[in-house]
Amino acid sequence: MERALAEYQDLAQAWPDERPSVLALISAGRIQMQQYGRREEAKILYTAAQNSQVPHSDWDEVIRKGLDKANGVATSQTGKF
Length: 81
Known about the structure:
This protein has helices spanning 2-14, 19-34, 39-50, 60-70. With 81 residues, the chain is mainly alpha-helical.
């Protein structure tokens, strides 16, 4: 998982103006949260995805849920991602 995390972060940093960078930030945030329980790191990554200048409205709900989870906000069972 560490390698995948590093690859996602490298991709997001290398191509910040490309759409895959948003997905890479989301994926890295998910790994930080789900695999390692690193809430602060996950928040940083989800926030970076949220603030990206790349159009990503189709990912807004996923980003919001990721931030909620990183902030310790419970999500509904039907709202799992």
